Amino acid sequence: MRKHIVAGNWKMNNDLPQTQALIDDLKRQQINSDAEVMIAPTFTNLWHAFDQLNKTKIEVIAQNMHFAEHGAFTGEVSASMLKSVGVNTVILGHSERRAYFNETDELLAKKVDSALVNNMRVIFCFGEELQDRKSGNHEQVVERQIKNALFHLDASAFKNIVLAYEPVWAIGTGETASPEQAQDMHKFIRTTLANKYDETTANQVSILYGGSVKPNNAKEIFSKPDVDGGLIGGAALKAEDFFAIVNAF
Ligand code: 13P
Fold it and tell me: What's the pLDDT at 176?
């Protein structure tokens, strides 16, 4: 069976005291779910979060990393640095990284390689913009993003890859893809993987949905057969809301 995953992407929110407060709240919540639970604080709070959550079921993951191992890349953080503070999973390709930091498919392919070489798990994000959806090009856009960044990999690499479909028009807007739109796209993604690799590989990859997932819509979205979890932004900043989503599985 595919893994269910609910990951909270905190984005650039929460300084150290706020991180501590949210972690304290998270620790008070009950996990009544078979989903793996993850949170992605900012770089400065990763070690603290790991230290606090080490013995719990909540995994601390990173929001980004550089592809190089080390060197003259001012302001950047490498896979081995993340691993050294207990982080074994990284989000790559978030639409905000693509839009505001010019991350291209080619750059992301290098980041994916670096994460995998370092035995990290990748949550690889992609998704179309509103104009792509309106013009009916959403499937081509998503197929291209996946192909360019991931299709140089062997099928065996996909045991360390989680996919996250995040339509840009649904991120932070309150507008969610309908459960049917999410299911249709997730099915398309799985078929794309099966065509390139094989059914077994395609059926093993967890595909998360992200974009305005809230306690009141999580259950319906997660009920779809090809939706294996969620990548949560705004609602991950409140422990009760985040766990209401986690416990929707
Ligand atoms: P929201 O849940 O705030 O729409 O953000 C989704 C997201 O970008 C998660 O990575």
Answer: 87
**pLDDT, tens only, 182-207:** 999 999 999 999 999 999 999 999 99
Q: Give CA separation, 160 vs 12, 24, 37, in Å.
A: 26, 30, 16
Q: Ligand 1 in contact with 230 (CB < 6 A)?
A: no
Residue of 166, 168, 221, 245 to mutate, ligand 1, most atoms within 8 A of C-beta: 166
Where are the alpha helices (H) located in 90-209, listed in sequence order?
95-100, 105-117, 130-134, 138-150, 179-196, 199-204
Instruction: Determine the pLDDT at residue 62.
Output: 99
Ligand 1 closest atom vs CA 170: 4
Show the CA angle centred on residue 120, arms to residues 184 and 91, nearest 5°: 45
Main-chain phi, psi angles of 208, to 5 degrees: -95, 155
Q: What residue ranges of the chain have pLDDT lower than 70? A: none
Ligand 1 closest atom vs CA 11 = 10
Dihedrals φ, ψ of 34, to 5°? -90, 5
Q: What pLDDT sits at residue 49?
A: 98
Closest residue to atom 2 of ligand 1, CA basis: 233
